[in-house]
Specification:
Strand 5 (about 100-105) and strand 6 form a beta hairpin. The chain is globular, with a radius of gyration of 16 Å. The chain is of the alpha+beta class. The two termini are about 30 Å apart. The protein has seven helices and nine strands. The chain has a seven-stranded mixed beta sheet, sandwiched between helices. The chain has a single domain (about 5-185), classed as 3-Layer(aba) Sandwich (Aminopeptidase), CATH 3.40.630.70.
Amino acid sequence: MQYDIAAIIRGYAQGYFLMADECDRLGWYESKERTLIPLDQRFRYPKSLQRILNQERFTVAINRNFQGVVAGCANRETTWISPELEKIYWQLYQAGYAYSFETWQGDELAGGILGIVIGGAFIGESMFYSIPEGSKVAMVKLVERLRQRQFIMFDAQMMNPHLARFGAFSVDYQEYKILLQKSLEVSCTLI
């Protein structure tokens, strides 16, 4: 089945995001608050993670195993990534909008972050790890990459304790829309 990728991108560009409910029905959602990962000096991470980064146990890649990252993100007891949404992500990937930012330990996929790039916005959809610290290293390296590529915003959608450890903060919907609009006015590439 082919999806209307342009319509999906318009939805994200207006501040909505796709999720499946417990019955795998796909729908558009918005939130009164959005969580952002800072791309400035407010970004932080635990000192213990710095030791792991210094050990260089992981290598990073972009889109080396996109479907593996999507599968990893969906592989949970309760997931909002339905089989239909997996197909949509694949078509967004083929159209150049969806990316997987990955960590590898040798030939093993250690973790990754699934996201959508529109203009200067990286919209993080989900993350996972199969090797401890794999997703945390991916987060640090992704923020470095977004800074290098002059992205305006890293949208993590919803707050959780894991994101808070990295300095994630919430903005109200009006502020989010302003930042999103600024992000859409520039053109950035992850690769």
